[in-house]
Structure formats: structure tokens, C-alpha cells
What does this fold into?
Amino acid sequence: MEKAPPLDSYFKSKEEKIIFALIYLDGQIRADLLSIKEEMYESKKKGKYWYSRLVKIVHPDHCKHPLASNATAKLNAIYERMSQYAE
It folds into this structure.
């Protein structure tokens, strides 16, 4: 069986990969692609660091992708859930 190429080779940019994961995926596969770890739900500091890294990439003020607004809304929703559980 032929080995699959790295996932990054399917996307033109890091922005596209993140936006795709936010909008079209869910569950564990989205968590894996976005590097979401359980500790981010336990530590506000870690969750905020993760969020701030991604929002700088996909926010419409920085990213001209047509789905940047939708991706930012999804990112905000994920971060809000993280914040509810974190201490």
C-alpha cells in the first residue's frame, strides 16, 4: 500500500487548512488538525494561547479568504466552550 503524502500538501496555505478544519470538520479529526488538547479545557492560559495563535491567522482583518468570517465564528465558539470548563 502506498504511503499517503503529508496532510499539509493538500492545502495551499496554513490559513486554508485551519479554515477547512474549523468549518467542515468536527470531533477528534478537527481537534487533531487544530492541535486541540484536553489541557486547553483545563487551563484558561493554555486555551487563550491556542486561541490567540489561530485568531491571528483566520480573522478577516488578517485573512482575505472568503470563509474567514465563518471560520472566526467557529473558532470563537470552540474557545467559548474551552473557557467554560477551564479554571
Q: What stands out?
A: The two ends are 46 Å apart (CA to CA). The domain at 12-85 is CATH 1.10.287 (Helix Hairpins). The chain has one domain: 12-85.
